[in-house]
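Supplementary material to the annual report.
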Amino acid sequence: MPDFSTEPLFEIARRLEIRGETGWLAVLSPAADSAADLDQLQSELQSILQMPSRVIQLERSTFEELREALHHPHNDAVILSGGTGLTQEKWRSLDLMRSALERRGPVVLWLSPGDIGNLTDHAPNIRSFIGGSIFLAGPDGGFMTEAERQERLKELSEHFGFSGDEAVRRAAANESPHEPEFVEWLVLLGRGDLL
Amino acid sequence: MPSSVTTSEGQLNRRDKFRAYMQAFNPTAPAWEAIRAGLVLENLHQYLYRNLAARADLEPGSQQLLVGGVGSGKTTELILAGRWLNKRSQVLPFYVDVSTETDLSSLNSGALIAGFGRQLGRRLAEGPDAKGHTDERRQKLKDSYAKVTDYAYGKTELLLADENDLWVEDAISEGGDVPPRRHYWHEVPGKLKPPLPPLNRDIQEVRAPLEDLLFTAKEVHKDVVIIFDGLDRLLDATKFWSVVHQDLRLLRELKVSVIVTAPLSVLFGVGVGQSISDFFDRVHHLTVIPSDSASTSLESVLEKRGVTNLLDPAKAYLICNYSGGVLRDLISLARDAAEETYVSDRDFITVPDIEKVGRQLGTGYLRGLGTEAINALLHLESSKSFDLSQPSNVELLLTRRVLEYSSTDFRVHPALQTVIQRPEPQRA
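Predicted assembly:
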């Protein structure tokens, strides 16, 4: 059975960043109990997109609550969490209200791997918004070996055309280029505090 | 270090270039934004929107149905029709996306009327048409608007109790503000307030205030057209029919032209198609656009949005093929291919990028399919025949795993086709 691409949460956030406003995608959580991963996704979105992010639990939200939550505010990043799985009925009712879910800021559906079939079967209008943007959450830069980290630092230095020291200097002087790769560089340099 | 600066500027330009491309290929951007940005090909469906608009304009009270699968471009056609009416005729058009106004899962008859009445009332009582009336007329309009709003959202009214109603005393004692004796507060639920309880009130109740508003509207504008979007979300044709039937009857009596969207199941659902074509003056079917060599429409859609900024035009057909002609899939694939290119640090989309995102899309369609459904798809692939009397086959159509190129030409979505595992051929 073919599977979806595995991407570190950092890369997933980077994809949303390049899309600009109103991006939708789905992330399949790596484990049943994935609260820590969900927290990590939320902070990755916050740092890469440079905007606040929120988690909204789908199972507990009524039509009115969801509509209200998504539009006030309408331009931050929102993670709609399906928890351990939604009922078919819940998917159908979410699908009916897809227009009411449309907003200016990005939307990430955080789903258990088994729920993707329900999304396709019972929420074709939401699936249509997601398209092929379904990713399996994979290990991030924190799981890199030292050799991988050094290799990535070298790539980033070549990418920007200056050294790591210079990157730190620019960040400290508030001259950071507005690019997700620069955020990644600072994190890998251990200077996430400058973000 | 001039060379460093140049590299950085180069990266910045690269990012800007991808960002601009992504904005043009945003499958979730509101249709009106794409229209306003000049990204829409107006003749894609042979100017269908003009047919919709002209009929609504020339034949007051006409009722047209726009049927199409998910992501086929219905909303774009509706908004184009509304704009055309607004610019070129004396008609006053309204666009209502019912699914943003109310919870469709508990929608009842009366809700379409309520949504329309609110927009009309707001326009006449508070909007650009509110000026120039006498005080008496203005007050009457406000009263009618208030009645329509009550109908939409419900109200609490004070009713005179029947002398013999023994439970009145209890109702009074439970209330916070004690009303005069022998009266009680009665909650009248609205049409748009979720969740909706079953309603028994006659839809005619709102007729008088609506007629009053329409009378004023027609003094300024020639006629009124209402465009109802979002009803295609009601995938169950029976539910769709139960919602629209009474409301559209009243609107026909009031000589309001209506254009309404519907899901594919109204055409192909068992026992429903006939009643739909009898009821509506015109049924427009927005079919999938073929991506074969005879048609370059899909490539024109990509070109209009600037695909050639990142893709060799000779390879655009690959994106078209994977999309199967579903417009939103087409836009998504073009966006996703560029995204792959960007995260891989390349400057131009390659064939493997397109193949990767095509397979991703197909994998999404594949999930949830059981053996029986896969067999049905393989049967369609080999025999070209598709039995729509089977509810499970209608489901395949509604979920876009099967696409309809005409009322008799059905095919498996090409992205799905690439990931379906086929049984090993048996050796003799």
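Chain A touches chain B through 50 residues (CB under 8 Å).
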